[in-house]
């Protein structure tokens, strides 16, 4: 069958793609920017890639007419005032185009929305579900709460809080009940629901067997890790304070923290249904999901991470628009050095950032990250998803990967820290040399003042980093 997959670069989409191909389907991946999509080469013969922006209805003509089913996996955590309007518009364009094809079945991964009072985030998902349900195809909505898996925002927040804080004074919403589900079970529900007529034109809540408070989830993680933690709650922590608390303690962005805090005040417990029996799925427990997730993290088998989503940083547009580093009106710091061994140089370069660090004066990088975090930026807390792999679109600390080609020997990063301008950091291997170029396009007077104020540090930091990258 030919399956249309939207959100193919997202957390769930990246995991659903190989599962669909394993089932023998041919998958049409919808992406807004092909430069951000780097599927494993082993999957390429079973997929095709099309560029579609669902906010621009004219781009939807590239969707094939002969698709048999489609997954709608597009979500946003934006706190923009147009947030709900844009999500509904995207769903409307999708519905109208898919209704013109031979598509029989559309599946949507939504959030559990069983209370009358919903957060903006959950209300938007409900509106999207209602819009999608009016198309001329059979429609199935699967509603999930907290998803536990390597790289998921929920798991990363739990891990950050428990690993970093032996004592926590927390907001009262930590007593809110939820029903977490392991990410592999989510993928099973999505794949097994496809063309299952018992699920047509219905919605189902999916969750694990445990109903827990967020506090119990934190203590459950601590138990598995063998950590002693004390958690107290205060009724005086407002949503704004709670959001700042999550932002400064965990790796989440502030916008994501706001969306999560507002959602966490609402109970997300599954309604009774027979979906588990229909699909013959027995979801694993929260503790088992945590154990499996920790094994993936330890063995560096993280398939996808929320940190690589553009919402985790400040990047707002297509990567292709920044692939050509500008020169006019820019300041540049360019340095070259012969490398001692090509493979060692590449190995170091493609492992840069995250736990590996920046090879020289890491304490200065940490200070810069701390200053950025105080200013509301991403800081260094995102790290990187993989230890030795970098793909276009990935986050590496406070940088976004624009281009990564190990064979060619070129790596291009774009700064997502708070800056009075725009900055690129490029590494290029030519002949026997590694050339390292920092480019800064200032914005107004403050941009120029910033460049010259940090310039004295460049000589030490960039020269030291280049020396470490080129030596064995």
Describe this protein's structure:
This protein has 472 residues and is an alpha/beta fold. It contains 13 helices and 19 strands. The strands form five sheets. The protein has a seven-stranded parallel beta sheet with strand order 3-2-1-4-5-6-11, with helices on both faces. A six-stranded antiparallel beta sheet has the order 14-19-18-17-16-15. A hairpin with a 4-residue loop joins β16 (399-405) and β17 (410-415). α1 packs across α5 and α4 (153-164) packs across α6 (214-225).
CATH fold name of the largest domain? Rossmann fold
Helix and strand content put the structural class at alpha/beta
Distance between the termini: 50 Å
User: How many structural domains can be distinguished in the coordinates?
Assistant: 2
Strand order of the largest sheet: 3-2-1-4-5-6-11
Name the shape in a single word: globular
Amount of beta strand: 15-25%
- What average pLDDT do the residues reach? 86
Show unreliable segments: none
* Secondary-structure arrangement, i.e. CATH architecture of the largest domain: 3-Layer(aba) Sandwich
CATH class of the largest domain: Alpha Beta
What about the largest sheet? 7 strands, parallel
